[in-house]
Write a structure and sequence with these properties.
α3 packs across α4. β1 and β2 form a beta hairpin. This protein has a three-stranded parallel beta sheet with strand order 3-4-5, sandwiched between helices. The chain has a two-stranded antiparallel ribbon with strand order 1-2. It starts with 8 loop residues before the first helix and ends with a strand. The protein is elongated. By secondary structure, it is α/β, with parallel strands linked by helices.
Amino acid sequence: MLLRLPAARIPVLSLAAALAVIVLVIVALVGAAAPAVAAVFTDAAGRRLMLPDNIKRVLPAERNAEVLVYVLASDKLAGLERPRAERSRTPAVSMRPPVLRFRPGATVSGVAAAARDARADLILDAGPVTPERAAFANAVQQQTGIPYVLVD
């Protein structure tokens, strides 16, 4: 005696498999079309910051950060500080980043204005991390909405 499967059951299994494949394809397409999410970063002061997914311009908050950005990603440098003695030896104006005018003795509002003017995506500060420096970074970040990263 031959064992026969009911004919109605075979199409149901195929339909369920087809629906599963369609759902997987839709999920994959929606996931691929969604923008990349920002990353959470913990800086040297222990502050958790939400970094943008695409950083095009980095504003150095002081000279050490300027050198760091210039060496590692000079194309992302939003501006730089030039000592007076070096002004005649720098490249043409069209080839160099704009000069930053908020240092030394920068205030929160001065750094915030420079970050907005430079259209920075990130502010980087490299050097000794102190509670005062962390408070300064928090104040600038609160005024601008731009992540202010402290590294040592």
